[in-house]
Amino acid sequence: MTRSDxxxxxxxxxxxxxxAISSDRFGARDLQIATKPDTTFVTxxxxxxxxxxxxxxxxxxxxxxxxxxxxxxxxxxxxxWIIDPIDGTAHxxxxxxxxxxxxxxxxDGVPVVGVVSAPALGARWWAAKGQGxxxxxxxxxxxxxxxxSGVATLxxxxxxxxxxxxxxxxxxxxxxxxxxxxxWRARSYGDAWSYMxxxxxxxDAVAExxxxxxxxxxxxxxxxxxGGTFTSIDGAPGPWHGTALATNGHLHAPLLERLTR
Length: 261
Known about the structure:
Elements: H1 3-25, E1 33-35, E2 41-43, H2 44-60, E3 65-68, E4 72-74, E5 79-87, H3 89-94, E6 100-107, E7 110-118, E8 123-128, E9 133-137, E10 144-145, E11 158-160, H4 164-169, H5 173-182, E12 185-187, H6 191-200, E13 205-208, H7 213-216, H8 219-225, E14 229-231, E15 244-247, H9 252-259
Parallel strand pairs: 3-5, 11-12, 11-13
Antiparallel strand pairs: 1-2, 3-4, 5-6, 6-7, 7-8, 8-9, 9-10, 13-15, 14-15
Helix pairs in contact: 1-2, 6-8
């Protein structure tokens, strides 16, 4: 087993541990909910999932750094695990099944392993650099290899913009309205699921503002290994720039032209 194989296997085990906690707390009547200083919500499940992942990493990868949404950064190493314990907490606490645990490994700032585990949707997606992107649906015997769509024109494309509020807050609402007039279909599917639909080939592009690295890092390997392209809205690679433009590759240049300022 190569180091990459071993890292992916570990990431999948971390997702198993996360799912056991989050699934148990999803819909719990005694779910504890608090508001963070940035006015976003956090639940006891968010904290418990991240702490469990950190404990496992401390045992199995003690020399690696960790960056998580709830407990920040620990360590300073070329290998960094990036964790969003529950991406879509607002959905989670309202009982909407569109949420996931995001687990990534970045080496020298480049995400090379990504796992997106959404137990309430009955699906898990993953990828490691050079090994393809995969999905395992509940009840399936074997995983399915993912491939982005071949849609090559905006007029034929289906896009997800994820949040009108995000575009409005970035001062880009007029851009969103203009874009919706020029594409076949525009919807807000929400959070990591939009990007996984892109990797599956059922959505052709996703664009989003006001993001953190832990919102994006796990998505990058899945999209790229499925044949897509992931940058910021301004075209910078990686999850470090606060925005995301993910496409099937064919639509990346025309969307960058539309959205770059």
